[in-house]
Specification:
heterodimer; A: 600 residues; Cytochrome C Oxidase, Chain A; 20 helices; 2 strands; B: 261 residues; alpha+beta; Four Helix Bundle (Hemerythrin (Met), subunit A); SH3 type barrels; 5-stranded antiparallel β-sheet; 5 strands; elongated
Chain lengths: 600, 261
């Protein structure tokens, strides 16, 4: 028997509240579901924006110093001389590169994976009425928006946006003459504050607000993933906040935290007190930077786990291994950061330590991925859109993860460091990895939020073209990187091509390698077009999608499907009681192939 | 459904929500100050030998401030205990002392900061370098400001030579603006030591202000809750007290690191 769709208007608890106005309902809401949707929509906007920056950069890489068609004039109109004649200047390329990274990581993926999905799903899955601190939750979203607006504004300040890469290495970041870096730092402080408030809230919610019977080993893996993510954000972000404050002081107050004695700028000694340490910035940055990688991937793994269990109609294989592996990842991720710094000359002993921990952390990641693969064994798989994305996540993340190993060994990293190989590696993890998982999550939970399904046909078009073009974009970059093409070059490496420096010169980039730039760019633009079905689907389905006939359209077991659709304020009509684990599908002796957690 | 455990303890964790929340928040604060302390260590270890300054700060003032903060931590506990025993008047009294302590701390900190902002290093065109004060104790003066204001000369009071007790101050001297190569007050830009000093103590001072503000709000404007929901009110006092202890603890690390070592 399936629960019928509840009509939210007839809940007595709901009638006690008077209907809130537009502002308090949609803008200053403290309801976790509304905040989740706010996070989601804002983050999707930034995802598109971050893609747009890259799409323009890909023109400059493929056709260096030629005017950008269609958008060139617009760019010149908004940014002035930095794009004079519609040609992207090297400074603008640097700014777009730095902001692409910043926006994708801090304004798109993390807010989508943690802010949006975490907010929407975690309280529902643990049987809680809301987050523990609803008002702090609202402030967290507002800080995120303020941080995002500051980042956007930085594009049009004199000198342009930050240009020292998303890592903002000092002293470069401090001495580039633009206020954009100052905006970047202030924006980051807001974003970090937002994440910290969110993390405290998530952890407190998961620890305090689990429904009766929802003990730790009955938590869906998605909740576990968010739990570990919360700890990573809570403990890894503050050092970056400290570093941000110090770099801000270097920039604004003239201190020398990261500026060494004898620093020369444009051939003259800089007027500074000196005595600072550039390495200090890198340590503090990567102390956040590496846990951040797992902040990006763990929620994605959580989503994939939910979708797989639901669509294979069998329990997830190795639930406990998943839980312990994610905890181990969380712990180890704090002691691997310096594998980003092998080339800084910090010493071979330190490199060896970080190389060892880096190899160790791949073990729990492989365990998780293996569990997901074995879970398919003997399942009767439903190939719907969320499942397709969840299935594709595995090989994509697998490629991304395995190609990380040569970067973790400090001997091979010397050759590959700062090449396109690195770009290909981490994009395989984040783009066809995490983003695919996020798409899976959107298709999967959409009916819970709106009461309507997304269109399957459009979803499949979206999936297949995304899968093809993602690979056409990133696979060639491995080859380019191994051929020695460095990242962060505003002409796509043209000045080091054999065509320019002569065919006999050692280390020149061959014509074949250079030609890949054009292919990759074309694939990148087509990847953008492949998102159009998704955008149409996303908005059209709000009104035009197929209405769900029950509160549990996927026949799922977890608690978020045991609420009315969409869930009312306070989520549950009565306090849920949990009697069993999260993935009891196809339990022998039961008449249905799924047994909800609330069933006795 | 309403949010549970707002003021009552969850049986299996033994905590109400806000208490867990503040502990988690304090964990992140530990990482924030931990990063700054690590930065301090790295900068100090990395400094050229003999360049790390000693004895720039007034140990007596620092000691007084340490005692003031420790005292305020005691009164915070006493005020919470008073509430637990239903003695609202005593709570009001003790917490008033806490707020007073916070103000004294900030007052002393202001004096210390000011003494740095009015202290200068001047370098003349002939290469002589002097530390000292300028007549009238202006703050944040530098060469370009002097030139902008068309000041032709300053009266400079050089410091007594270091290391000699009871050494007489050298005679003040008049320095022409035209002779000055650089003039710098002892703000964070002066040296890496002062940079980390101002960052650490400045961030700590912000925490003192924030904590004192919250304690004051609960003590004054929001104290009506004692009548409507005494358990929750007492919890608020406890949670703000936990934060206050943390602020105190940070200072207990800051004092030896910056003043004594």
């Amino acid at each position: 028997m399936q629960p019928k769709t509840h009509d939210t208007k007839h809940h007595p608890a709901h009638e006690a509240h008077h209907e809130p106005g537009f502002w308090s309902k949609y803008v200053f809401s403290t309801d976790h579901k509304v905040i989740g949707v706010q996070y989601g929509v804002t983050a999707l906007f930034f995802l598109l924006f971050g893609y747009g920056l890259m799409a323009l950069m890909r023109w400059q890489i493929a056709y260096p110093n030629q005017p950008i068609p269609v958008f060139g004039g617009l760019l010149q109109g908004v940014l002035g001389d930095a794009a004079s004649g519609g040609v992207m200047s090297a400074d603008l390329y640097n700014a777009f590169g730095a902001m692409h990274g910043t926006i994708m990581v801090f304004l798109a993926i993390v807010p989508l994976a943690f802010g949006a999905f975490g907010n929407l799903i975690v309280p529902l899955q643990i049987g809680a009425p809301d987050m523990t601190f609803p008002r702090i939750n609202m402030v967290s979203y507002q800080c995120y928006v303020v941080g995002g607006v500051i980042m956007l504004v930085s594009f049009i300040v004199p000198g342009g946006a930050a240009q020292a890469g998303w890592t903002s290495y000092s002293p470069l970041a401090t001495i580039i003459p633009t206020n954009g870096q100052t905006y970047w730092l202030v924006g980051m402080i807001f974003l970090i504050t937002s994440s910290l408030l969110g993390a405290v809230n998530f952890l407190a919610t998961i620890i305090q607000l689990r429904a009766p019977g929802m003990n730790w080993m009955r938590l869906p893996f998605f909740v576990w993933a968010q739990f570990v993510t919360g700890f990573l954000l809570l403990l890894a972000f503050p050092p970056l906040e400290a570093a941000g404050v110090m770099q801000l002081m270097d920039k604004v107050l003239g201190t020398s935290f990261f500026l060494p004695t004898g620093l020369a700028v444009s051939g003259e000694f800089a007027n500074i007190s000196g005595g600072g340490s550039p390495l200090l910035w890198q340590h503090l940055f990567w102390f956040l930077g590496h846990p951040e990688v797992y902040v990006l991937i763990l929620p994605a793994m959580g989503i994939v786990c939910e979708v797989i269990a639901n669509n294979t109609r069998k329990p997830i294989w190795g639930y406990k291994s998943l839980v312990y592996s994610s905890l181990l990842i969380g712990f180890l991720s704090f002691i691997v950061w310096a594998h980003h710094m092998y080339l800084t000359g910090m010493g071979t002993k330190i490199s060896t330590f970080f190389q060892t921990t880096t190899m160790i952390i791949s073990i729990p990641s492989v365990i998780i991925l293996t569990c997901f693969f074995i879970s398919l064994w003997g399942g009767s798989i439903r190939f719907n859109t969320p499942m397709l994305f969840a299935l594709a996540f595995r090989p994509m993340f697998g490629i991304g993860g395995l190609t990380g190993l040569p970067l973790g060994f400090n001997a091979s990293d010397i050759l590959l460091h700062d090449t396109y190989y690195v770009i290909a590696h981490f994009h395989y993890v984040v783009a066809p990895g995490t983003i695919f998982a996020l798409f899976a999550g959107i298709y999967y939970w959409y009916p819970k939020v709106t009461g309507r399904m997304m269109n399957e046909a459009l979803g499949k078009i979206h999936f297949w073209f995304s899968l093809i073009f993602m690979n056409l974009v990133f696979a060639p970059m491995f080859v380019q990187g191994m051929a020695g093409m460095l990242r962060r070059m505003s002409d796509g490496g043209a000045q080091y091509s054999s065509a320019v420096i002569g065919a006999d010169a050692i280390g020149g980039l061959s014509d074949a390698i250079m030609k890949m730039n054009i292919n990759v760019s074309a694939a990148a633009w087509l990847l953008g077009l492949a998102q159009i079905p998704f955008i149409i689907n996303f908005f059209w389905s709000i009104k035009g999608g197929k209405k769900v006939t029950s509160d549990n359209p996927w026949d799922a077991t977890t608690l978020e499907w045991q609420t009315p659709t969409p869930p009312p304020h306070g989520n549950f009509t009565k306090e849920p009681e949990v009697h069993r684990g999260p993935y009891e599908y196809s339990v022998p002796g039961h008449e249905k192939d799924f047994t909800p957690q609330t069933e006795k | 459904m309403e949010i549970p455990y707002v003021s009552k303890n969850r049986p299996d964790t033994g905590l109400y929500n806000a208490k867990l929340g503040i502990w988690l928040f304090l964990a992140s604060e530990v990482m924030l100050f931990g990063a700054l302390f690590s930065a301090y260590i790295l900068l100090r270890v990395g400094a050229d030998s003999g360049t790390w300054p000693h004895g720039l700060l007034s140990v007596p003032l620092g000691t007084i401030n340490t005692l003031v903060l420790i005292g305020s931590s005691v009164t915070v506990v006493l005020s919470w205990a008073a509430l637990k025993m239903n003695q609202f008047g005593r709570y009001k009294f003790y917490q008033a002392i806490t707020i007073l302590c916070a103000l004294i701390f900030m007052g002393i900190k202001t004096v210390e900061y000011r003494s740095k902002f009015t202290h200068y290093t001047v370098q003349l065109q002939d290469g002589t370098k002097m530390d000292g004060h300028i007549d009238g104790s202006p703050m944040f003066l530098n060469l370009s400001k002097l030139q902008a204001k068309n000041v032709e000369e300053i009266k400079f009071h050089p410091d007594a030579p270091k290391g000699e007790k009871n050494a007489a101050h050298p005679e003040p001297q008049v320095i022409k603006t035209a002779d000055i190569k650089s003039l710098q007050s002892w703000g964070p830009w002066h040296s890496t030591y002062l940079a980390i000093y101002f960052t650490l103590t400045g961030l700590h001072a912000l925490h003192v202000l924030g904590g004192a503000f919250v304690i004051f709000m609960i003590w004054g404007p929001l104290s009506g809750m004692w009548k409507t929901d005494p358990t929750r009110y007492t919890n608020r006092v406890e949670v703000s007290g936990l934060f206050w202890h943390f602020v105190d603890l940070v200072w207990i690390f800051l004092f030896p690191v910056l003043y004594l070592l």
